[in-house]
Amino acid sequence: MNINLKTKDVELTDEIKVYFENKMSSLIEKYLITLDEKENLQLDCEVRREPHHQKGTVFYIEVNLEVPGKILRATKYATDIRTGIDTVESDLKRQIKKYREIRESKTRKGWLKLKSLFREILK
C-alpha cells in the first residue's frame, strides 16, 4: 500500500505523520483484509490550512483511497489535525464497509447463479 501525504501551508510533525499512517493502515488491514490487491492500493492525503476563516486556524483534510473499480473519498474541516484525521477515518471506514458489502454480495450472487445453472444442467 502506498501512502502519499501532501501538505500546504502546514508543517506536520513526525508524530502526526505516524499517527495518520497508523490510523489508515490499521483501517485498511481490518476492513480490506480479504482484498487480494492490498499491496496495489493507493492512499492520497492532503492537509492544508484554510485561509478563509477569521478566527483561529482551520485545517482541511482530504483522503482518497483507490480500490479496484472505485475511489473512496473523505473530507473534513477541523480546528485540530488529530480530530480531523479521526473523523476522516470514521467516514472512510463507513465507505469501506459499504464497498466491501457490495463486492461480497456481487460475488455471492454470481456463485448462486452458477449454482442454479449447474442444477439445471444436472436435471
Structure description:
This protein is of the alpha+beta class and 123 residues long. 49% of the residues lie in helices and 28% in strands. Strands 1-2-3-4 form a four-stranded mixed sheet, covered by helices on one side. Helix 1 (14-31) links the parallel strand 1 (2-8) and strand 2. Helix 1 (14-31) runs parallel beside helix 2 (81-122). The radius of gyration is 19 Å and the shape is elongated. The chain starts with a strand and ends with a helix.
Largest sheet: 4 strands, mixed
Number of domains: 1
At the fourth CATH level, what is the homologous superfamily? Ribosome hibernation promotion factor-like
Q: What is the approximate shape?
A: elongated
Give the CATH class.
Alpha Beta
Give the mean pLDDT: 86
Beta-strand segment tally: 4
Strand content: 25-35%
Poorly predicted regions: none
SSE arrangement, N to C: EHEEEH
Strand order of the largest sheet: 1-2-3-4
Beginning-to-end CA distance, first to last residue: 47 Å
Number of helices: 2
* Gyration radius over CA: 19 Å
The secondary-structure class comes to alpha+beta
Q: State the share of residues found in helices, binned by percent.
A: 40-55%
Query: Which architecture per CATH?
Result: 2-Layer Sandwich
- CATH topology: the name is Double Stranded RNA Binding Domain
